[in-house]
Amino acid sequence: MSNTQKTLSIIKPDAVQRNLTEEIKSIFKKNDFEITSEKKIKISKEEAEKFYIVHQTKPFYEDLCNYLSSGPIVVMILSKENAVLANRELMGATNPEDAKEGTIRKKYGLSIDKNSVHGSDSEENAKKEIDFFFNN
Ligand code: CMP
Questions:
Q1: What is the Å distance from ligand 1's center to 88 Cα?
Q2: What pLDDT score does 1 carry?
Q3: Is the dihedral of CA 10, 14, 17, 21 positive or negative?
Q4: Centre of ligand 1 from the C-alpha of residue 121, in Å
Q5: Close Cβ partners of 109 (under 8 Å, ≥ 6 residues apart)
Q6: Active-site pick, 99, 118, 120, 133
Q7: Which CATH number do you get for residue 109?
């Protein structure tokens, strides 16, 4: 049975700043993701805090929110069979040092914070994150 899903992807400030947007989009397309919506925006710290609310108790929360609001980002809805998991595999481990060869974070990530891309970690969160950026 087919299971076409949508997931939210963000090209983070470090990658947008290094002009990697088109290169990263082409990797998604090569891997059969359809980019069904896309926008380049800059969010406020308050918006970043809302977006990353699940991490609010983590020691890195403050830095994470400052970082995501520090410059333009590209937010996209990606569609594919089992898109949530497929995107997480293509992105690689959160820390680029641990990411496998051929993954986006291995190729472009600079550090655990500046890891170039974000992707939803479950179908439920994908719906919430898509809503956050596209349905208001
Ligand atoms: P992301 O997938 O966007 O989700 C939360 C982000 O927090 C994560 O990528 C990392 O960039 C960042 N982060 C910083 N420190 C940590 C950590 N110790 N563990 C997990 N994520 C971290």
A1: 13
A2: 76
A3: negative
A4: 12
A5: 92, 95, 96, 99, 115, 116
A6: 118
A7: 3.30.70.141
Q: What is the pLDDT along the chain (136 residues), one digit of tens a residue?
A: 789 999 999 999 999 999 999 999 999 999 999 999 999 999 999 999 999 999 999 999 999 999 999 999 999 999 999 999 999 999 999 999 999 999 999 999 999 999 999 999 999 999 999 999 998 6
Answer yes or no: 118 catalytic: yes
Nearest alpha carbon, ligand 1 atom 2: 118
Number of domains in the chain: 1
Is 13 within 8 Å of 68 (Cβ atoms)?
yes
Element (DSSP H or E) covering residue 35: strand 34-41
64 lines ligand 1 (CB under 6 A): yes
